[in-house]
Design goal:
The protein is an alpha/beta fold. The chain has helices spanning 2-15, 43-55, 72-84, 98-102, 135-138, 144-165, 193-198, 227-243, and strands at 26-31, 34-38, 62-67, 88-96, 110-112, 117-119, 188-191, 203-205, 220-223. It contains 8 helices and 9 strands. Strands 1, 2, 3, 4, 5, 6 and 8 form a 7-stranded mixed beta sheet that branches. It starts with a helix and ends in a 7-residue tail after the last helix.
Length: 250
């Protein structure tokens, strides 16, 4: 249970926050055309990645990533780097939270290695489904105004990012919508490959989608949706988004 507890705590602390932790990552050139990014997505770690990428821009075509997430704005930035440089993405071990939101969606060529876990658990629109009503989130901000400013920035940048990469933004919160939320029994969720493709992603799996950690604990729930079910959920989400007060919507 140690692995799943560590993952759960990390997602709570850094997955959807503006935390400024300084956790180092292993970021290195592991072959002439491939950069390894193993660790939290922070402003400092993304800066190291960008510097290494720029130093080998003519050769590098692939990023291998293993990350449980991190700062969301840094996640969006690394996703934009991947998109603008048309990098291939290889997911190794685990890719969750900001990694799933902004790395696994940023490339038109994403491979999930056999045994790796790729899962989502929320995004800037999760306030539509009561996702920010937590003491830990409130504690990140000194006052309501600073929280509002951060949410505006996050929502605007996330919206622009998903429009750019042509992936449906609802993927980040679809596991929270009525009809699926009641069925959730794990923190992370994903969908069958057909649904992921219909949402605009280009994700390929080596073998079956893995739902378990190295100790055999189920950490990911994979929902099987028909195109008709997905269409209804997306319509309901769009209606809720249009009716709700979302800071960055206007």
């Amino acid at each position: 249970m140690k692995w799943i507890l560590t993952l759960w705590l990390t997602l709570i602390i850094v997955g959807c926050s503006n935390t400024r932790i300084h956790e180092p990552a292993e970021i290195s050139l592991i072959s002439s055309d491939t950069i390894l990014f193993d660790g939290s997505i922070t402003q400092q770690n993304v800066a190291v990645f960008e510097e290494l990428l720029n130093a080998h821009l003519q050769q590098v075509s692939t990023i291998v990533i293993k990350s449980v997430g991190g700062d969301v704005l840094s996640g969006i930035y690394i996703g934009e780097l991947i998109y603008s440089h048309q990098l291939k993405v290889v997911i190794r071990g685990v890719c969750a939270s900001s990694c799933a939101n902004y790395v696994a969606t940023a490339s038109s060529n994403v491979t999930v290695e056999e045994g790796a876990v790729l899962g989502w658990h929320g995004g800037s629109l999760q306030s539509l489904y009561g996702g920010f009503k937590h003491d830990w989130f409130d504690s990140l901000f000194t006052d309501e105004e600073s929280m509002k400013e951060y949410l505006v920035e996050w929502q605007l940048k996330e919206r622009d990012f998903f429009e750019k990469v042509d992936v449906d933004q609802s993927l980040t919160v679809l596991g929270m919508v009525p009809g699926l939320k009641e069925k959730r029994n794990t923190m992370l969720y994903s969908f069958d490959t057909q649904t992921l493709n219909l949402l605009g992603t280009s994700i390929k799996y080596v073998g079956e989608q893995n739902r378990f950690d190295v100790e055999g604990n189920e950490v990911l729930q994979v929902f099987q949706l028909s195109p008709q079910q997905l269409q209804v959920m997306l319509k309901n989400h769009s209606l809720r988004l249009a009716q709700a007060r979302v800071y960055g919507a206007n």
